[in-house]
Structure formats: C-alpha cells, structure tokens
Amino acid sequence: MAQSAAIVLGAGPGLGAAIVRRFRRDGLAVAALARNAERLEQTFGGDAGVRRFALDGTDASGIAALFDQVEREIGPIEIAISNPSPWKSAGLLDMSAQDFEMVWRNSMLSAFNLAQNAARVMLPRGRGTIAFTGSAAQMRAPSGFAAMAVAKSGLRAFAQSIARELGPKGIHVGHVIVDGAIDSERTRASIPDDDRRIDPDAIADAFHALYMQPRNGWTNEIDIRPCGARPAG
C-alpha cells in the first residue's frame, strides 16, 4: 500500500534533521536529500522510514528522477521542502564571482528545481505543499552577507509568485523566514544566551503547521525568531 511521502532537500544534522523527524512523527515516509552521503547515513541510518539520497539540488535531471522514484517506490509526495543553507560571508571586494554564484545556485536554483518537480507531480492530484526556508538576510541584509541576501530575497519573491500561480490549483506554497541563529553546538559557543537562539524543532513545527492548514486558511509566510531578538524592520 502506498504511503504518503515528504521530500526534504538540505537534510543536514541541524534544521534539516529536525524537519525530517517532525514529518516522520506524523507518519510520512521521508526522502532526505543532501550532498554528503556519509552524513546522511550518520543522521538517519537508524530509521527505515527515511530514504537517503546523496544528491545536489542544482542537478535538475537528478532532482526530476528522484521525484519520479519516490512517487513510484514510496507513494504520493504530499510536501516538498527546500532547506539548503549555503552561505559565504565576505565583503564586496573580497567576494569572488564564483562564490557569489555558488550561493545563488545552491539556494535559489535548488529551490526552483524542487518546486518545479513538486508541482509536476502534485498538480494532477490537485493537492500538496511546497515550502522553503528563508533567513534574516532577506529581511535586513547585513554587511558581508550580500550573496545570501540576494539569494534569499529572490527565494522570497519566488515563493510569493508561485503561491499565486499554484494556490488556485490546490497547491499550498509556504515560506518560513528563520530570523535568527539556529541552536547548535556552534551557535551556543558564540551566542550563550538561550533566548537569542531558535530551537530547530520549533522551526520544524512551523513547517508542519503550514502543511496542516486547511485549504481556506493558507499562510504564505511565517517569520520565526527567538524571544531575545528584535523583530525585523
């Protein structure tokens, strides 16, 4: 019997893993995508309900084949989430064109490939959710983060555009702005105040809330931040 499936692109050990766990808890089989096969195995190897795929989100043909494989071998894809986290911090004169393009490709092009293939399989059924992870850089671009600000601002506009296109056809498009540092060993070392870090499980809950919304009450955008941070603006 076919099982409902989720696809998570950018299923690293932090936020990506939290998203995978949240949808597994809801009973969905999850296809976890990341470029590092060894890290995927370390993170999800103990869960038979998580299929692991070492894949680059910028590989258009690879992403298309992956969607076909999941639909064929697991079941209908009900939600697809783009969660890559590329970044390169550098001043304008220190940023190479190659690094600038890398950040854009890994964030924006990956999101395009995922969304296009999700729409392809969801539209005939007239249902499904496509969601993206945003960042504080698209709300207020800090010095040294121009590449990420451009990529994530584009992602926000992309989400708004395809939401208007796909919403009337039954596809919910959501965008979760992560406005702050996500809790991890690395961020705990630099930001010791618990009230200034975001719990990755709370962000995963936000994605799940989007997925659970009824058709006559969809949200396109959620911004989530720790209580110790100032709102954007």
Explain this structure.
The protein is α/β, with parallel strands linked by helices. The strands form two sheets. The protein has a seven-stranded parallel β-sheet, with helices on both faces. It has a single domain (5-224), classed as NAD(P)-binding Rossmann-like Domain (Rossmann fold, 3-Layer(aba) Sandwich), CATH 3.40.50.720. It is built from seven helices and nine strands; from the N terminus they run βαβαβαβαβαββαβαβ. 43% of the residues are buried. The chain starts with a strand and ends in a 9-residue tail after the last strand. It is globular and about 50 Å long. Strand 4, helix 4 and strand 5 (129-135) form a beta-alpha-beta unit.
Short key terms for the protein model shown above:
233 residues, alpha/beta, Rossmann fold, seven-stranded parallel sheet, 7 helices
Overall number of strands: 9
What is the strand arrangement across the widest sheet? 3-2-1-4-5-6-9
Query: What's the mean pLDDT score?
Result: 90
Rg over CA atoms, rounded to whole Å, is 17 Å
For this structure, the CATH topology is Rossmann fold
Low-confidence stretches: none
- Shape, per Cα inertia axes: globular
Compute the number of helices. 7
- N-to-C SSE series? EHEHEHEHEHEEHEHE
**CATH superfamily placement:** NAD(P)-binding Rossmann-like Domain
What is the gist of this entry?
The protein is α/β, with parallel strands linked by helices and 233 residues long.
